[in-house]
Amino acid sequence: MCILCIDKKINSVSQLPNNSLRRTLLKSVGLLSVGGFISSAGTVIAQSANPPKSENILNPEQALTRLMAGNATYIKSKTLQINVDETRGALARGQNPYACILSCADSRISPELAFNEERGDLFVARVAGNFVNTDILASLEYGTAVLGAPLIMVLGHTSCGAIDASIKAYTQNASFPGHIQALTTALAPAVREASKKAKGKDLLNAATVENVRLNVEKLKESNPILSERVKKGNLKIVGAIYDLPSGRVSLI
Fold first, then answer.
1. Residue 5 annotated as part of some ligand binding site
2. What is the pLDDT of residues 149-168, one digit of tens each?
3. Is 2 marked as binding a ligand?
4. Residue 106, annotated ligand binder?
5. Which domains can be identified in the chain, with CATH numbers?
6. pTM over 0.85
7. Cα(154)–Cα(131) distance, rounded to whole angstroms?
């Protein structure tokens, strides 16, 4: 169904006086799903009735505390023994993750393992260099506004190949095949800023941190969904770095 048709249907249904009747009719036109619907103003409204994982109903601070506690367990090698049969039925009917993670696509990092979580707990968006583009932004908007996650973490990592390639492109005019060059261009602002601040420090580490910071700010300022949720205190957006040798996640 096109957006114009959806808007027309929502506008007509929204005039009905009975909330129950409105909800029934919204379902009938396909606007309600497990998690939420789109209002006439274009805002995604979360629905949390009967969530599949009630333990994931947290406020932003609780979500961050749980995430970091999970990492503390992970670095001690005391990870979960997961029985997928226990949650398969519940998760088949929906999801309510308590955190969204914007992670690098690096094969050495698995957010679910790094935070000692299982299926249904984390809504993970991954791209080499962990930066925000239109698709990533839309995914995170869905994870927070529709699925109700109160936390987004932008998770960079040490020895990032995408950042290293961007440094080579910036400092040595290196070129890369296919669409890899576009990726290095997207990461260039972080390299540029880090080169001003590094002052003898390792540029790779400095650019990795700067890239996380820039993308945290980009998400915080993203209108209309994320910025409004941040202002209302319904959403917290943080940045962190995953250390490959230790597995430790450090907030920045």
1. no
2. 999 999 999 999 999 999 99
3. no
4. yes
5. 51-251 (3.40.1050.10)
6. no
7. 8
